[in-house]
Write a structure and sequence with these properties.
The protein has about 120 residues and is α+β, with helices and mostly antiparallel strands. The protein is built from 4 helices and 3 strands. A 3-stranded antiparallel beta sheet has the order 1-3-2, with helices on one face. The longest helix has 22 residues, at about 1-25. The protein starts with a helix and ends in a 9-residue tail after the last helix.
């Protein structure tokens, strides 16, 4: 009976360690961007463009866009992708990322309402 209890305790501890190891394998990065339209989450060029561009990148697990603060929170696996690659993906969608400017060809693909006036 005592060995069964010890086995269950050990199994519980191993499961707890495994779950905490999985949780520590992800980080969240908050990236400052420029969002110029007031309807970015519904706009074809803003919210979905950023979200789809980022979710296509291996290692990115979650994307949250906050138009009011002009930030993009990205939860990612640091063993699979680095923060600069995340910024590059945001640039490819046509948006600046922490002062890193989007290239002109990416900006040109945005709807007029999403471009700086």
């Amino acid at each position: 009976m005592k060995s069964c209890r010890n086995f269950l305790t050990l199994a519980f501890l191993l499961a707890s360690f495994s779950l905490s190891a999985q949780d520590s394998g992800k980080q969240t990065l908050s990236i400052k961007t420029n969002i110029y339209c007031d309807h970015c989450k519904q706009c074809e060029s803003c919210g979905p463009r950023i979200y789809n561009q980022l979710m296509d990148v291996q290692g990115i697990r979650k994307v949250k866009i906050d138009a009011e603060t002009a930030t993009i929170d990205v939860t990612y696996s640091p063993s699979k992708i680095e923060p600069n690659a995340i910024r590059d993906a945001i640039n490819a969608a046509g948006f600046d990322a922490d002062g890193q400017l989007a290239p002109a060809e990416s900006l040109a693909r945005l709807d007029d309402c999403c471009k700086k006036n």
